Amino acid sequence: MATAPGGRTTGQRPVLLAVLVPLVLGTVVVFGAGFGILSACTDTYSCTTTGCAPCRPASTWLNGGWAVQGVLLGAGLVLAVLARRGRGAGSLRPAALTIAGLSLVTAAVTTALAIASY
Hints:
The chain is mostly helical. The protein has helices at 12-45, 56-85, 89-116.
């Protein structure tokens, strides 16, 4: 990574995004979306999430999205370690932005599929 004036390295922000975006989407957003979507499903069918066949696919999509966010968070943490050690400076920025973008797309797609599944 190139060093900018003041000793800060350029490319820190994308690596930070690669960690924070999956972390926030995997916790706050997935929890909020899951609570809202599954509450709507169980209210519509007057059942529980585990005992309601129409709500199981929605739960599966949300859990899958959560798992993907976890994998992306792990990849972001690997990039953060590499950045800290000063390795792979040329490829860190595109990889970090790809992780952040995939996290956003995953959250949007799995949420939409969960909503459409019941």
